[in-house]
Amino acid sequence: MSSLWAGSLKRPTAAVGLLLGVLVLAQCTPGEGEPQKKLAPVQPNRTSELANAMRQLDAELVVFRDRFLEGDKRWSEAAFTEYDLNDLAPTDSSMFVDGYTAYAMAFHKRVSDFNRAPGPETYTGVVSGCESCHQKACPGPLERIAKRQLPE
């Protein structure tokens, strides 16, 4: 063996030292050596008046649906907050699709119908109103809206 080769075996090179350092640091990451996962923010977009109203209505849908599923059939105490969706500023102008004003008016009527006569049928009407508009204007929440339906 040449003296050059023998000498390189006796002392680690900078690359080997760097590799050992990386391996040691990798063992110190959170979660028993697993890399920490980066999560997207809950609400990545700025919040508009319209978005706030939609989130509030969704929260009310969840409460009413859960109450029904838990066996509480007394709908008389349930009432949605009434918003005029045409008066609320959207996140961006893409919300103003053809027919938006009509969808907003129809949705307001469904909410009013529920508030006058709360029950499974009028609740389903509100959920259907959400679905109709979101199919046209903003399809992102459709999966969430489908989860608000009452079971058959």
Describe the structure.
The protein has 152 residues and is an all-alpha fold. It has 2 domains: 38 residues, no CATH class; 98 residues, no CATH class. 53% of the residues lie in helices and 0% in strands. The longest helix is centred in the middle third of the chain and has 21 residues. The chain is globular, with a radius of gyration of 28 Å.
SSE arrangement:
Blueprint: H1 3-10, H2 14-26, H3 49-69, H4 100-116, H5 120-136, H6 142-146
Helix pairs in contact: 4-5
Structural features:
single chain, 152 residues, mainly alpha, 2 domains, 6 helices, globular, disordered N terminus
What would a concise description of this structure say?
By secondary structure, the protein is mainly α. The chain is built from six helices and no strands.
